[in-house]
Model the fold of this input.
Amino acid sequence: MARQKIGLMGGTFNPIHYGHLLIAENAYEQFGLDEVIFIPTGRSPHKDARQILDARERVEMIRLAIADNPHFSCSDYEIKKEGVSYTYLTVQAFYESAAGSELYFIMGADSLAYFDSWMRPDKISRMSTILAAVRDGLNMEELLPIQKALEQTYGTKIGFINTPNFSVSSRMIRKRICSGHTIRYLVPDVVEQYLKEHHIYVKASSEER
Done:
């Protein structure tokens, strides 16, 4: 029996948007993954918790956004876990619980430049393959030396996801809502409806959320 190929996609998803979904779907297709698991951050080591929406609401929006995609799922592992959500601990947990599966950690290509500053990049590299999303127009010549250095230092296995250049961020969406601008076509309709019904980000600035 072939080994299951599982993609892990971490992030605050504050909120989830079409950019996240495009990367996940392209990773699934281009690398023949069996599933992609979205893992919303609990307590991030890099972000101020005051800027992040309540975990329950972020999880609910993810579940709404992926409900019609049978190869997407959502895990609340980091949210339930106590302490800081370090990537290597999350990967380790899935590595141990999904023994025999191949793990692929999905990230933006820009994160490769500081991957060696993450906690235990050696462990992440040993337990998973990194899939870095490359947007149209990004210079691969800048990424190849980084890829080579990580391979030599940590034995990191890196694959590049080709994905459309959809320029959107969660921060931009929060600012647009706060300013009263439309977010239609930036997030799934069900997420837009959830944000409106619950008046999320309306009164808070992006710095406060």
Q: What stands out?
A: The radius of gyration is 17 Å. The mean pLDDT is 91. The chain is about 40% helix and 15% strand.
